[in-house]
Specification:
about 90 residues, alpha+beta, 3-stranded mixed beta sheet, two-stranded antiparallel ribbon, 2 helices
């Protein structure tokens, strides 16, 4: 699986979005190509620093989210996702 982080700062957190309740939701991608495309779209926006894709262990990232009560979403190759370029949806967690 893959997550998106700020370039050179993979230990400072991963890209997440805010849900309707204002809570952060970690974006996890099953496919590297999908994560790369999403990161490319983020990099085209002036709202973010340079983002990069980072590979994570499947079970470890989900276990960590569940252990800490952190919401997450796993995008599969069948999902079509684009960043919602509206200020209300961006999270800097």
């Amino acid at each position: 699986m893959y997550i998106i982080t700020m370039a050179g700062n993979k230990d400072d957190g991963a890209f997440s979005l805010r849900n309707e309740d204002g809570e952060s939701v970690l974006c996890i991608f099953k496919e590297n190509d999908d994560a790369e495309r999403y990161a490319m779209l983020l990099n085209e926006s002036d709202k973010y620093p340079t983002m990069e894709v980072y590979e994570v262990e499947d079970e470890a990232v989900i276990y960590a989210c569940e252990l800490h009560g952190y919401e997450y979403i796993v995008f599969t190759k069948n999902d079509i996702v684009i960043p919602p370029f509206e200020d209300d949806y961006f999270s800097d967690d």
